[in-house]
Amino acid sequence: MEIKQKLFKICLESIDSRFQTIQNTINEIQESLTSETKSSAGDKHETGRAMLQLEREKAGNQLAEINKIKIALSKIDVSKTSQTIGLGSIIYTSQANYYIAISSGELTYNNQKFYAISPNTPIGQLLMGKTVEDSIKFRNQNFKIKSVL
Fold first, then answer.
1. What is the mean pLDDT of the segment spanning 69-95?
2. By percentage, how much of the chain surpasses pLDDT 90?
3. More confident of the two residues 35 and 119
4. First CA to last CA distance, the chain
5. pLDDT at res. 49
6. How far apart are CA 7 and CA 14, in angstroms?
7. Contact in structure between 141 and 96 (CB atoms under 8 Å)
8. Strand ranges of the sheet holding 112-117, from the earlier edge strand across to the other edge
9. pLDDT digits (tens, 9 = 90+) for 59-80
10. Please, which residues have CB within 8 angstroms of residue 5's CB and are 6 or more apart in sequence?
11. Measured distance CA(127)–CA(85) in Å, rounded
């Protein structure tokens, strides 16, 4: 079970890092908005403020998305094991290893590579509900499920 806890922790750290980066961006934009003084070129000033407001709104939307991902991650019980693939499962296949959690890219643990994927991704949807010895076809490749943790 140590592997599940470690992969979960890596995903959580990734999300926390993205959250902090976006929060810092919002703080910088807010600081720019409050410190900007009106110049003699009024239209240029207003355009600059409008651009900053748009950037702040975009960062706010990213922050909301990160919060949704955190909620999805909080639903994973790392102590749970099942022979059927579901949220929080680690899957060893003939092609690659997967961790069904959030889309976080490639993770490495004990020199093994895992792809952290959301259950909503195309391959995640194919894997959900499958068990050991089942096969799936993804992008013209056949994957045989060897093990599920």
1. 94
2. 81
3. 119
4. 8
5. 84
6. 11
7. no
8. 105-109, 112-117, 97-100, 90-93, 141-148, 135-138
9. 999 999 999 999 999 999 999 8
10. 78
11. 7
Residues comprising the chain, all counted: 149
Name the token pair of 128.
């959900």
**Helix/strand/coil for 44:** helix
Distances 138 to 17, 91, 96, 135 between C-alpha atoms, Å: 31, 15, 12, 10
CA distances from 58 to 23, 45, 105, 122, 140 (A): 12, 20, 23, 26, 37
Q: HSE-up of 12 (CA within 13 Å, CB side)?
A: 13
Res. 113: pLDDT tops 80: yes
Contacts 24+ apart (CB under 8 A), 31-35: none
Is-contact 91 134, C-beta < 8 A? no
